Amino acid sequence: MTTQTGHTEAIAASRVIGTTVYNTQGDSIGSIEDVML
Q: What is the span of the domain harbouring residue 21?
């Protein structure tokens, strides 16, 4: 069986939902409500 390599840093959707989002000036512009793949 082959081992896959590549991106190794993953974040669970449950940790992302509710996270505050900021623009490049540092202003809060909202929060993450859902994650779609």
A: 7-37
The number of folded domains in the chain is 1
> For tokens 């940790």, what's the residue?
15
Beta strands 28-31 and 20-22 are antiparallel
Per-residue pLDDT of the chain (37 residues; tens, 9 = 90+): 667 677 778 899 999 999 999 999 999 999 999 999 8
Contact status, residue 23 vs residue 37, Cβ threshold 8 Å: no
pLDDT at 34: 96
CA count, 13 A, side-chain hemisphere, 33: 2
